[in-house]
Specification:
Blueprint (H helix, E strand, L loop, with lengths): L1 H15 L3 E3 L5 E9 L9 E8 L2 E3 L3 E9 L4 E8 L2 E3 L3 E13 L10 E12 L5 E10 L10 E11 L1
Antiparallel strand pairs: 1-4, 2-3, 2-11, 3-5, 5-6, 6-8, 7-8, 8-9, 9-10, 10-11
Amino acid sequence: MRLKRLLYIWLSFFFFLSSPVFAAGRPSLLIEAGTSNIFRDAPRPLALQLEYRSSLEYDWLQPMGGVWGDAKAAGFIYAGVYHDFAIGSHFIISPSVSVGLYRQGNGRYLGGPFEFQSGINLMYKLPDHDEIGVSLRHISNAHLYSHNPGTETLMGVYSYSF
């Protein structure tokens, strides 16, 4: 019950208390492929991720949501926020945070189903408004459960703007 209340407060703060305005950017779909457990002496299964990034802006944060899975049938569905910071005229760095539900499958046990994801993307703007880059993500439960090993994923990213 406490976790549910915290989730409602978090969602209210970011999505309902802020006034939406259209951002200058376009909505995009990120297609990502790479491997997880990159900082561990453990199997490194193939990982795939699809992420939708909205062009709506709430103050300076933009909503996103997605699904992640790996070759060991582990999965994560999430929603969160991100912000793009321009570095010169061609590069973008995008930190993000999200909350979601994790399914272990035959993959790494992360302590429980409710998990947090933090990440950072480094992207290069292509001439047609699309982007290409790399993503580093960390999924863990922030010690909500007694077991909190976490996992990191490194992926190549193609961002299709529409």
